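job 3f2a | input accepted
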Amino acid sequence: MSVLRSINRSPGGIPKTAIPTASVRPAGIEGDGHDHEKHRTPVQAISLIDLELLEAITDETGIPLAPGDLGENLTLSGVGVQLLTAGDRLSFEGGVALEITRVRPPCCVLDSISPEFKRILWNRIGMYARVLEPGRLATGAAVTVECAGDGPRPLVRTPGEGCVDGAAFAVRVLAERAVDPVVATSPETSA
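job 3f2a | predicted structure (191 res):
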């Protein structure tokens, strides 16, 4: 079952703190701030990560990570966010709807956890999404994925020089944990 495990916000920077419910506006989670201007855009209104990948990064690095520690707004389980592409949609119990826009790259804000993270977390630290339908979210809400995007699946981003591409890691971890993002298909893609 695909579920919203944690809603996370902060006045800016990391970690983000888990909250039980939140209002979602076109600009993102109400009360959530960003330390860098580049993050204040509707195409990056919400950042999402798979709980399964968060746990696998903890296992790999030995660094304990809780939802929100990497700066994501929504921590999801059973969704396979890292397997999606631009244009895919997530609908949450209660009416909020998001559309995947781009891969989230690791950045220097992660240095406070580990200077290695901005090098090793490429293509496994989640995605950004725009808000299609604002509303209220609650932890524990069911999530439905509509694979409506027509881009490469999974969507990846070319890592910077000297960085590690984690796309294969993400695919392996999500497959091992039996995560299948295809819960619904758009009329154009159904057989």
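job 3f2a | The two ends are 23 Å apart (CA to CA).
job 3f2a | closed
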